[in-house]
Amino acid sequence: MRRMLAGLVAVLLAMLLLPAGTASASVGQPTVVSPDPANWTPDVLDGGGVSHSAVHAFAQRHGTMYAGGQFRRVASGSGTRTHERTNLMAFKIGTGALRSFAPKVNGAVVALEARGKWLYIAGSFTRVNGVARRGVAKIHAVTGRVDRKFNARLASGKVNDMELVGKRLYLGGSFSRSLVVVKPATGKLTRYLRLRITGSVAANAGATDVLRFAVNPARTRLVAVGNFASVAGEPRKRAFMLALGSRSARLDRWYYRPFRNACRGDKFPAYLRDVDFSPNGSYFVVVSTGAAAKAGGVGRDVCDAAARFQTKRDRPSRPVWINYTGGDTLLSVAATGSAVYVQGHQRWLDNPKGRNDAGPGAVRREGIGAIHSGTGKALAWNPGKTRGIGGKALYATSAGLWVGSDGARFAGEYRDNIAYCPL
Asked: What is the number of structural domains in the chain?
């Protein structure tokens, strides 16, 4: 029996130490994760000048998990000590013990990528450890030292999303050109992606930007969402797809024309918030804000909803399915094959007839939920969490699902801003 238990522990530990996938999940999982979170994760606290702390990104390197966001105070897994960490932290998987890694980042960190001995960080900062680096930086994964050879030289704006794909580092944001590819070694701009992204979906939508994007596992397609009206001279409101070639990227034929339509919420005209490909790349899922769909738009318009699209269906007339919250925002999505996890400040799923209430058939899913990838209906998985503004980080690995948010409770337990649900 002891040998069996020791073997089981070894297997579980090995699963925990397996590296994660890319920035967008695209990590296959055989089952839905447990609704009962691990007890050892660290807590991210308010304080130090931050009144509403949040975790926006994760990246795994061996047995270490990195978390980025907006915070100044964190507590180790034991909860006995409080430490200062400036928008970026690292801790040991399995215990929550904080690493000594403590770089100073003067703005929010919203995307992370780990490779070898380096950690790439992206967000709204302008300095890292006192070194001028707007929007993106490359730092040593153990010491936090800035790699001064890497400098993307962004003149303005911020980086909203980032993905390291082979020898290319993709950056999306509100800077000039909105979506670019730079060299991972130097940050120098490449000629691989030279498509003009222009315009705005509404007068009150703000500057042109790419908010989130995802690259399929085969590295042949990229889907982006954000505030724009035209890509490479073609109309593309709110979403577009690129075909990724060996030497350059081009605009793909895929487009969902109803993305031209507005939702009821005039304050959020650029309503698409996140996108993720399935593990086999055959489909992707987008999530949104925007309030409920306008009259006649249910089943067509993706407003306060999650929607699945087939990658190779160029001009769909409808998504494969849409799951509506009934008027609450969804901010992040992770598609793992066994489930499509969604997170925001929603109260319900399966709620197409709800208008800020529970319509016929609605199921309670506070703050987080899971959707069947085939039917588009909510799964029974229902831990519930603090709704807050809504979590922006769902990070799937081969061992489980990491949840980063701005909420203090998960499944009725105190799990401040970080929760981990194992398989």
From this structure: 1
How far is the C-alpha of 376 from the C-alpha of 253, rounded, in Å?
25
| 385-400: burial string, b at 16+ Cβ within 10 Å, e else | bbbbebbbbbbbbbbb
What pLDDT sits at residue 361? Answer: 97
> Which residues on adjacent β-strands are paired with residue 123?
109
| Residue-wise pLDDT tens digits, 339-365 | 999 999 999 999 999 999 999 999 999
pTM of the model: 0.94
Identify whether the C-beta of residue 43 lies closer than 8 Å to the C-beta of residue 67. no
In a domain, 6, yes or no: no
Overall average pLDDT of the 137-144 stretch: 98
* In-domain check, residue 7: no
Residue 322: domain span = 20-422
